[in-house]
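User: What would this chain look like folded?
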Amino acid sequence: MADIQRKSPVQFNAGATRTEVRDHWTVALEYDDEGSGPYLVDLSHKTRWDLQSASLADHRPCGMAVPEKPGQCVLENGVMLNRMNRTQVAVWHLAGTAAALPEDPAYTDISEGAAFLALFGPGTFSITEKLSALDFLDPGKQAPFLLQGPFSHVPCQIVTLERGEGGGGIIFTCSRGYGHSMVHAIMEAGAAFGLRPAGENRFARWLGTLAG
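Assistant: Here's the prediction, encoded as structure tokens.
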């Protein structure tokens, strides 16, 4: 039997200079001349779970307490929980090796059904203003926080992970079938700001500064 090959729904018009095969995904670690930002990184290989239950407070995904209110997020040890509504939480494994999917019917692994991207660095929110009317800089919300709505006319789950003098950034997911057109729209909107594709190493360094 041939080896399983998982393919990202996202393709950049640039070749990665360093890659790694991980759990049957070819992961881009670095691109040539990534520049000084802003950056767009493909995270579609990262494990993501959907947790649905009428009693969310009874669950502790990866040992974490579920955020109390829709829109609230918590990031601990490389795992992010996003409270979507009364009965649903998104579980995003952003760093390290993902835990095994719990043997609980409330959990579903949705990793291969969606594109997953990070957009961060100088000029990020000038780019997002060209693609969405959502308020990623809402002063009434503390980062990280979740927004659900259209980004480049595509329904998305989007987390403002950081906002600040360095530009900050977002991570977001949408249906797999929109991956190609989403990347094209973002790269076009970001061209004037020097937006370039970057590898997972660049994202890991950014995430590390937030965790530190």
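The first strand starts at residue 16 and ends at 22. If you want, I can go into more detail on any region.
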